[in-house]
Amino acid sequence: MTTTAITNIAGLVTNDPALGDGSPLGLIENAAVVIDGDKIAWVGPAAQAPAADTAFDATGRAVIPGFVDSHSHLVFAGDRTAEFNARMSGRSYSAGGIRTTVAATRAATDAELEANLLRHLDEARRQGTTTFETKSGYGLTVADEARALRIAAAHTEEVTYLGAHIVSPDYAEDPAGYVDLVTGEMLTACAPYARWVDVFCEKGAFDGDQARAILTAGAAAGLIPRVHANQLSYGPGVQLAVELEAASADHCTHLTKADVDALAQAADTTVATLLPGAEFSTRAQWPDARRLIDAGATVALSTDCNPGSSYTSSMPFCIALAVRDMRMTPDEALWSATAGGARALRRSDVGVVTPGARADLALLDAPSHVHLAYRPGVPLVSAVWQRGVRAV
Fold it and tell me: Rounded to the nearest 5°, which phi and psi values hold at 350?
């Protein structure tokens, strides 16, 4: 295999305290990285870098792990511009808006859905994202949910079955019947394409008992639970996620002290994934990241990229929001957008720059990772390596 050395790095974020300055970011100044095939072979001070077949000069800029976006909804058709415009003019967001995207997605061809997915993946990659999770949830029929997952699985291993996004319009008068479908025929058709099972546990979607039934059935089919929890109101989602040892409780906007304590106690099992793009796009209350971190919870940041409530694929934008409005430090926000996302996907091979990890890296057009929050809205990612290959 050909080896490549990235040299003259002003600040290298490894997310391994043992490799760097002892901080959670494991920062190494005046650093180098050697890539061998699709893996990281060596990291350390540039003066000690081993010889490599080729070299890339970072010219005194920062290098970070590729972002790990552990929550997105990218298999869809259409957009909801009119809804967004109306909401910004005074109408509040509710779970029911999803039905608009369901109609457009059902009407789209497989080729149209895949082309839209690839467009968003390319958009995210150009902003430094190298690992992403994505969900179904805009078909809500057996055939449409299965095809969404099949399309997604061709482009990522982190695929989530979200037949329980909302009750299908076809079952508006029979929610129990829809839960039976989601836990029965639909699950059977979708499980072969998915790694995860998710449910929107929220008023207007699924209550605690329904969510438990859906997640339990998914787990019995070999899928690992994750939960849309406590986004729009206080509710049972977080407690259910912890009880069922879900990999993540996502949104976590409305939390009681008991919810925070539960996430802290389950820090090694259930990650609190915060999605500030949703609060930005809906003018909703911000999640209190500071409260969660200080309690000892593990926190991830993700985009929640979807056409209704968070139409952004930019992890740098979410970092800036987290620092400005969720009381995270720049270091915490970057860790949560990389290593934290990896934890939410139960991955140890991404979100870090350590020997043996997947060679996913982003070069910033800045001397420090702090610029991600310091210069919001500026396209700072100037190069991306994904699985050892220069992708941007």
Answer: -130, 165
Q: Which two tokens stand for residue 244?
A: 């069922």
Tokens found for residue 371: 């610029």
Using the predicted structure, report yes or no on whether residue 94 has a pLDDT greater than 60.
no
- Distance in angstroms (rounded) separating the CA atoms of residues 340 and 332: 9
Q: Report residue 99's pLDDT band, with 50, 70 and 90 as the boundaries.
A: confident
| Strands 224-229, 248-251: pairing kind | parallel
Q: Which residue has the tokens 């972002």?
A: 67
Spell out the SS3 assignment of 19-68: CCCCCCCCCEEEEEEEEECCEEEEEEEHHHCCCCCEEEEEEEEEEEECEE
The answer to whether the pTM exceeds 0.85 is: yes
- pLDDT, tens digit, 9 for 90 and up, residues 325-343: 999 999 999 999 999 999 9
- Running DSSP on this structure, what letter comes out for residue 223? P
Instruction: Report pLDDT for 96.
Output: 56
Looking at the chain, list the stretches that DSSP marks H as alpha helix, in order from N- to C-terminal side.
Answer: 81-87, 98-107, 110-125, 142-153, 175-183, 185-190, 208-220, 237-243, 257-265, 276-282, 289-295, 315-325, 330-335, 341-344, 371-374
Cα–Cα distance, 290 to 309 (Å, whole number): 23
Neighbours of 142 (CB within 10 A): 18
Give the pLDDT confidence score for residue 329 in this predicted structure. Answer: 98
Name the 3-class secondary structure at 389.
strand
**pLDDT tens for residues 276-313?**
999 999 999 999 999 999 999 999 999 999 999 999 99
